[in-house]
Every structure is written in structure tokens, then in C-alpha cells.
Amino acid sequence: MISNLIQRISALRHASFKGGIRPAPHKQRTLVSRIMPMPLPEYLLLSLSGYKEEHLSPVVKEGDQVLKFQIIAQHHSRKELLLHAPTSGTIEQIGTNHIRLTCDGQDTEVSQQSQQKAKMHSPASLIDCIAKAGIIGLGGAGFSTAAKLRLAARAEVETLIINAAECEPYICCDEALLREKAQEVIRGAEYLMLASGARSCLIAIESDKTDAIAAVRKCLGDSPVQLKLLASKYPAGDERVIIKSTTGKEVPDQLRPADVGIVVQNAGTARAVFEAVTFGQPCISRVVTVAGSPLQTPKNFYALIGTPLSHLFELCGLADNAKHIILGGALMGRYAEEEQPSVKKTTNCIVATDSENFPQPMPERACIRCGYCAEACPVGLLPQQLLHFSRLQDQQELRDHGLMNCIECGACAYVCPSNIPLVQHYRCSKEDIHLLERNQAQSQHWQARYQHYQYRQKKLADANNRKKTRAKAADLAAAPDFSRASAKMEVAAAVARVKAKKQREND
Amino acid sequence: MSSISSPMQFAARQTATIMQQVLLAATPAILISTWFFGYSLIINLLVSSVLALAFEALALKARGLPIKYHLADSSVLVTALLFAVAVPPGSPWWLLGMGIGFAVALGKHVYGGLGHNVFNPAMAGYLFLLLAFPLEMTTWHLSEAALNLGSSASPLGLSALLQNLQLTFPFLADSLDIDGLAMATPLIESKMSLQSAINRALAEELPVLSRSAETGWEWINIAYLVGGLFLLARRVISWHIPCSIIATVICWSGFFYSDGSSSVMGTPYLHLFGSATMIGAFFIATDPVSAATSNPAKIAYGIIIGSSIYAVRVWGSYLDSIAIAVLFGNFLAPLLDHFFRPRIYGQGAGRKLHKPKAPDNPLSTQEAMHERT
Amino acid sequence: MLPLTDQPLATGLVWALALGCLFWTTRRFWRWLNLERQQQRSLVDLVNRELPQTQCGQCGFAGCRPYARAIAQGEAINKCPPGGEQTIARLSELLQELAEPLDPGHGQSQPPLVAVIREAECIGCTKCIQACPVDAILGGPKFMHTVIAAECTGCDLCVEPCPVDCIDLVPLRQTPRQWRTPAPVAQAGLSATATTSEQRAW
Predict the structure, then answer these.
(1) CB-based contacts of A438, cutoff 8 Å, min separation 6
(2) Where does chain B show beta strands of DSSP type E?
(3) pLDDT tens digit string along A345-371?
(4) Smallest Cβ distance to B371: which of C114, C175, C185?
(5) Chain C contact for A487, CB < 8 A?
(6) pTM
(7) Domain C113-174's class?
(8) Is the pLDDT of residue B217 over 90?
(9) Looking at domain A15-300, which of 3.20.190.10, 3.20.19.10, 3.40.50.11540, 3.40.50.720 is its CATH number?
(10) What are the chain C neighbours of A436 within 8 Å (beta carbons)?
């Protein structure tokens, strides 16, 4: 308890935030060794699915021979969403969501790939180079880096934050990367600074990652990048939380960080940017943490995108007591549901679970309103109230209590003494609210179209009416006049004509 | 597996552990109270606990819920503890039974059980007894040794138990051959004279460990304070409610302190350590289910309770005001929750959450339509 | 009253505090009243906002706005199949009425539908184009007609006028975007008040 107290007091000088939890890190065994290179697997399963509409379409056919770095899939309209072949081989199968590539072991590269490196270090040229490399946010969200930088440049951001806070248990890929390749990350950060037009750059690391901090300090030199230490709490690495703790600014739910003048990039993304800009190398591999107590030697790997997870687990020695695979960390990950899960660009960690560290959740009890969840929430919400309203499905109150600001970090469910699956409740309610908002937007859109339809019909009807009245008037003008007055006039004219004729005959 | 959502790991103390830590925190005070005033309190506690468990089991059976599973969360033991401390020691067992029955059944299960009660069950039970049986609730049945603490006889004798049995089962009086002893309203007396007694004690510097009523009360309250600090250190309760109650009581009593007056407008020290404020601040008002929920609301809750404690104690006609004050706070807790909310990340002043932008041109919601293709 | 006559300062402070609270409360209340008045919208508009705007006529009225007007006059709220349970629930909350189940006489609630024209059979008569209330069909006389799926509401009004009966209504393709997190289900009998699966209607 004393050491806890000392830790808390010394953490006062680090950038911190209200709330948060301190789970056991489970990173020590994994960080014993350096990041290991990975031997080529037999085949690669490259995923085509993306976030929202970012589903990629293949540009190769089954049976094609592809070379390393060749583009094998791209988005139909957004040019910066690309998938490159991580190694040479044959395309064995193309499914709706994946491409299966059989590796031939030769690792032959596309010729002159280095031509893809940035010609100049101007923002446009850098962003172009990043777009061609198909780099997306490697921290987990997976937004296209080029698109984010373009947005940032347009919004004239001031600060770039490199997010190296790895707060979740088990994940240590960024820490290992910084330990060994700090120079590359910092150079990448400088390129990102140029590309986004940011005036200052911070690299934010949790204070207990001493090796990584020392490595970064050694490489900083007179770089414009500054080091910022964070209090080591979970979830220090969430984008909005890290913005608040390092710069003090807050990003409300409807805005983006670029709207408040900040852009955040992951440390792994910075390194990928360095490789793309310096060597023209596209995003084909990343550091993946393979962890869990059933593993004999948990490690970090330089894994190719598309590596089957079974290959990685074999390299670490998987014991029999492993139960499931978690993609991600212990608090925000999800169970792998695919038949053959593989490494995607956003996979930062895979954990093999055993029943000791990941026990079956205990049955749910009634909420005793103890308030531990509210103490743990980093965004200042009241989870006990949100649970109440979520059960009642009262969407107005949920919105008023800020449910849409929930970052789904799981800190509340982590501390709940009644074992209530809070995050699941909130996810359901958020989906309900999103569905309702989508339906309402759709209804408004249809209503607008219907009103335009009615306007158009009215215009058509008016035009028809006008045509009819004009035609009627023209008809009236052209029709022979059978009125009495005109008949009298004609008779009088005929009589006058006859009289005149008689007069001429008499003369 | 897809039905289980993140997080996958938990560190939560269970509800049962939290309740047991509360019981642990109250133990020093119980022991010191026994040392000074005899076994009566222990008898109260034992009888209340057993009856509470019995009533809870009955109520759970009536609601069709698994009994063992729900009894395992020990919440009813905390109710029994607070109830037993509030009700005069040495009370007949039927009084305890009625009170705890009311507390458990009508103060808790009628509302939906653990987590759903509006009022603090122990205080609801106590107030029911106070209104229904005012005479019994204002009479302390202490052993003679406990009554005259200055004498050499120790209050730790069996006479308390025998006296209690005789009170509960009057038909046993003859066979047990006890002289019944009753002391009228030491609390009312204390209202008048305890202040002067404690002032005298402070002035005359009585030896700290002497067995007198003044230092007895002090030590008991210090023990509750220590228990409360233990709960704070273990992060079972948060500091907001106890600190605001104590601060409010200090403010009010300091404000209105008039030296020499005969009423109980005593020193802040008296109000904190000469009465039940400590147990109220740390144990009773912090009952999570009936208290306010968010930290700002908790501070307002504590201020209201502290003010009520002082007001009812000084200007009201009840003995001690903790129960009434806490119940008053419970009334207001939902309202406080509504108005005193913490600021959410991203909120501006005046609790304005950023509203979603309405689509300016309805035809530009093509983005929302794309997923339909 | 407070026995504070011998402490004027204390009395004054307490009075000032009490009056200040009263003033602040009154001001807040007045502001809130005014805000409510400014935001007054017609009931018909509010009801119309909850309806799905498919203009299908299944409720028996000529479009969604006429139905909204009727609801404001007291019409039953359970006549809209495209809106389904969600619309009925929201209307019942808005109007403080009891939520009845969907009236089966006005149709069944179905998953979202889109119209699809079998182009091989289309004769280019433009009858469906004239019938569509949201102009979701593209085409001209003697030209191929096709439904713009993104704009189609699934209202069914184009199917009848078609002389060659070449329009089908098919359910929308399910994408991962429509996947919903399953609602948490408490173990039966353990927690008396945790959510059970029946309680989440939609």
C-alpha cells in the first residue's frame, strides 16, 4: 500500500486524467526478448473488409502470380485505401472478404519500389507518398492516415500527438518498437508534422515504460518532437483522453480532434510513415504482440499482414490449457470468431486465454449504486445512471447523460462489484440510438423528396392548366363567330355589296 | 462467445466483500462500546443479525428468488449492525424483531430488494420503532455497573444478559431472580447535561482511560472515525459524504455556539464526538443504495444531512437526529442526482452537450443512404 | 424563528443566503418557461417526425402527413407497418397514450424492402415513375426503367400500376453494418430486476 501511495504521489507530475483504473499489466514476460522477425508462413489470409464503406475490391484474379509490394486490392473511389502483397506468391482463392495468398518463399519484390518514396518533403508530396503506401492507423481504429492528414492540413492543426501510451494489459508492441526503433518513430513523427502542418509535436508515453522513455530521450536530440510522460492508468491511450491529458483540450462527441486543432497518430503508424517516405515501402507488416499465460514464450513479432494467427502461436509454443483467442487487449479486445483469424493492419495484439486469468464472468447481481464505476470513468459519465436508463430504453435521458461520449473502455465493468456487463448494455443502447438517428435522417430525406415530388406534380399540373387555358383562348379566337350581331353585320355588308353592284349596273 | 462483450478481465471486489469490510470497520467501535457499557450492545447485534437473516430469507422465498445466493451478499448484516447500534442496548427482543422485520421487508424488499430501496432500511426500521414505541425507544436498560461507570464494578458481567432475558421473557423473572433496573432517557439527560459533562471533562482533564460516560462516548466516536478512515483508505466509500457532513456540522455548530447556554448548542467537538455523528457520517449516510450517486450530488447530500442533523438535534424534540436527517437526505437524493451531475467530457457551461448537426440540405444525407445498397 | 437576535451578522447572512437562493431559483424557472414556449412546435409536426415517411398509404391515409394530422385529432397510433413497434413506442411516449400492438388489418411489419424492376420485361410505359412518391425510379417513355435503391422506401405503390407486373419487392441485403450487439441476458431467477431478453422489444 505504501508503494502504491508513493506511485500515486509521483504520478502527480505526469499528465493525467480523472478516473481510470490500474489493471495488472501482464507485459513483463513478453518484453524479455526483442521483437522477433517472423519466418514466412505457408499462406497469407489478407482481409478485404474495412470500416464502414471501406471494403476493398481485388484487382487480381485467382491463379495470378504476384510480387511483393504489388497492389492486390483497392477501394473503388478512395485511392488511399490499398492492400499490397506482403510477399511474393500465387493468389489461391478470392473470397468476399479475404484473399488467400500462397507464399512461394522467394520474397521477390516489385522492381523499383523505392521509386515510391517521397520526392520532396512538402506536405502534398508526403501525403501522396503515404496514400500510395496504403497506411492506415495502426493503433486499432484504422482510419486512412492520408485522409486524416489531409483533413488536418485543411483544418490547420497546431499539435501532432504521437500516441505511444499502451495502457491495456498484454499489449506492448509500441513499447517494444520504441525500445528498439525510437529513431525511426521520431523521424516518422517529423514527417507527419510536415505533412499535417502542425506546429508542435508531442510523443506521449506512460511513465512506467522506462526503457522506451530512455531510448526516446537518447534519440530526440534537437528534434522538434517533445516527450510527454503520462500517468500510467488505463485508458490513457484513448484518443480523446490523451488529448485532454496532454493539451487540456476536449473533443466533444460530434467533433473530430482536427476541429480543435489536434491530430493524433499511433507510434507504429509513425514508423510506417518513415518507411514509406524514406524507402518507398508500403504497409505490409507491423509489430504484433503475442501474449498469454498458455504460451511458453510470449513475444513481439514483426508480422506480415495476413499471417494466420495459428502460425504465430506455433512460434510461441501454445500449451493445451489455452481456451480462446482475444484480438486486442484484455479490456477492449474481442474474441476471434473467424474460422482462421489472421493479422490485419489494425491487429496490435493477440492473447491466448486460460481459465485462470480470464475466468468465466460471475453471475450478474443488482446494482448497489456504489459509484465505483463513476470514479473509474475517464469521460466523467455516471455509468450507474446510464445502466438504469439503458434498461428502461429511455433514449432522451441516455443522451442527456452523455452516453454518446462513452468510449467503451470497459473501466466501469472492470470495477463493478455486481458483475454487471455495463459495456454490453451501453453498446446496445448506442446502437439503438444510432439506428433511431439513421431512421430519422432517412425519414427526413424521404420527406424532402416527397415534398419535391409534390411540388413537381403541382408545377406540372399548373403548366397543364396554363396550356389548356391558352389553347381554349386560341380556339375561341379561331372559331367562326355565329353571334347575331356578326350575322347582322354580314347581312348589312352583303346588302351593301348588292346595292353597290346594282348602282354600277345602272350607270 | 460472441455474446460476451469486452472487458474480458475484472478486478472487482464482490458486493459481499464490500459489506464485510464495512462490518470489519465497525468492529473496533463495538468492542470499545462493550468495554464501557457492557454486553448489551452485543446482544442487540446478535439478535438483530439472526432475525435479519431470517426475515431476509422469508422475503426472498416470498419473491421466488434463490435464498442462499442472495443471502451471500451480506448486505442485510450491515443493516442489522446499523439498526442494532441505533436501537437502545438491552431492548427486548420483540422490539428488535419488529424493527428489523420492518426494515428488511418494508424498507428493502418491497422496493425490489438490494439496490432498489429508496430509504436506508436500518433507519427506516429505527424510525418506525421510534414512532410506534416511543417509551421503549427512550429507555436504556443497562446493568448497574454500566450505569455508574465511576464505580469499581466492571460492566462486563452477565447481569446485562440476564436483565435482557428478563425483559424479553417476563415470565422468567421469578425463576431467574433478577431485580429489574431501568434508566430513564439518558439521551435526554445527555442533551441537557452531557454538554456540561464533557466541558467539565475537558476542563478538569480527567484521565483519558478512565471509565466515565464522557470519555466512553469520545472513545466510541473515535473508534467509528478510525473505522471510517479505514473504509476510506480501502476505497470502500468515497470522501465526499463523510467530509461534507462533518464539515457542515462543524460550520453550523461553530456558527451558533453560545458559551454557557443551557441548550445543546455545544462546541463542534461535542457535536462530533459526543453523539452519533461519526457513525452517521461514515456508516449510515454512506449506504450507497439510498445515497446520492454522483460526487457533486454527494457533497450536496452531505450538506443537507449535516444541516438536518444539527437543526433537528438543536431545535427539534427528538433524541438524536441521525435517522431523521438521513431519511430526509434519502428523500432528496433523486432530486440531487438530477441537478448535481458531474461535468461530462466535452460539455460546455450550463450542461450543454454538443447537439448533432441537423442535415442542412436533406438531399445531402446520401452518406447515410449508402449502406442500403 | 431563529433565535439569533443577538447576532445580527449571522442573521443577515442567513437571510441574504435564503433570498439569494429564492431569486436564483425563480430566475431559472422563468428562463425555463420561456424556453419551452419558444420551442413550441405544432403537434402535427412532432407526430410527423416520428413517422417513417414512406408515403405508402398502408395506414389508410394518403401519405404520412395526413395520418399525422389524423393522429393529432385522436386517430389510433398503431396503423403504420413500415414504422413498426419502434414508431408505435415513440408515438405513445410523445402523446402519452397506451402503446397497442400493430393493427394487423393494416399490414404486417416487415424487414426493410426495396423494389427491383426485372429489366428484361419492362416496356417503358412510365406508369411506375408517375406512381413513385419519392421519385426513386429513373427512366423515360420507351426507355428502360430502373429503381434507385438508395432512394426507394419500399412503399409498394409502383407494383400495381405496372401493366406487365415486372416489379418485385425484395428485402435489403444484410451487411455487417446491421449487426447488433446482443442484449445482455441475466441468468433466469438470479437477479430479479436484470434485463431479460423479452424486455428488449426492438
Answers:
(1) B368
(2) 139-140, 183-184
(3) 999 999 999 888 888 888 888 899 999
(4) C175
(5) no
(6) 0.83
(7) alpha beta
(8) no
(9) 3.40.50.11540
(10) 86
